[in-house]
C-alpha cells in the first residue's frame, strides 16, 4: 500500500494519507456482558438513570495505546537517581519559586491551618504536572473505560475509579466527556485519581466548588 500510494501522491502528502488509512479506535461495545453489568451497578447502587449511563459510556473510546503504556510504565524502569536528574532542573526549581511567590498568601494560610509546609504543597504540583503545565491529554472517560474493561490485571481497581469518576462528574455538575487527564485517569494540577478527588479535594477559597484544574487555593488545600 505504501509503494502504491507513493506513486499516486506527492511525497509531502504521503504521511497524511497513511495516517488517514490507519484504523481508528472504536467506541465502547455496549453489548459486552461486563459493560452491561457495570451499567446495572450504576443504576442499582448509585442511582444513575440507566439510559443516561448508557449514553455516557457509549461515547467512550477505548485507547489501545493506554494498554501499551501501562505495560511498561517509567516507574518500573527508572531508578530513583534518574528521577532526581529529571525533576531537579533549574527550570523546575525556578518554576517552584514563581508559584510560591504568586500564591504565598494562600500557601501560608493553608500551611497554618493544616500543618503542611508550603514547600511540600508546591513541590507536589511541580513533580506531578510541572506546575500545571502537563496535566494530560487523554479524556478521563476514555482512560478509565480502557483500563476498566480491557486491562484484566487491574480491572477491578479501574472499574471502581470509573464509578468514582462518574459520581464526581455528577456532583460537580460537569460533563464527564469533557475532562482530560493522564493515561491512568489522574486529573488536575495535583493529578488526583477520581476516588482521591472525591475524598480529599477541598474548597480552599470558600466559593462552594473544588476546582483542581486551575490555579487557586483549592489545589493547595486539597494537597
Q: How many angstroms does the end-to-end distance come to?
A: 52 Å
Global structural class? mainly alpha
What fraction of residues sit in β-strands? under 5%
Q: Helix tally?
A: 13
What profile does the largest beta sheet have? 2 strands, antiparallel
Radius of gyration using CA atoms only = 21 Å
Poorly predicted spans? 1-9
Q: How many beta-strand segments? A: 2
- Please bin the fraction of helical residues: 55-70%
For the largest beta sheet, what order do the strands appear in spatially? 1-2
Mean pLDDT: 90
Question: How would the global form be characterised?
Answer: globular
Order of helices and strands: HHHHHHHHHEHHEHH
What attributes does this structure have?
223 residues, mainly alpha, 13 helices, disordered N terminus
Question: SSE layout and pairings?
Answer:
Blueprint: H1 2-8, H2 14-21, H3 33-46, H4 50-57, H5 64-70, H6 80-87, H7 90-102, H8 104-114, H9 118-129, E1 138-139, H10 140-150, H11 155-172, E2 180-181, H12 194-200, H13 217-222
Antiparallel strand pairs: 1-2
Helix pairs in contact: 7-9, 10-11, 11-12
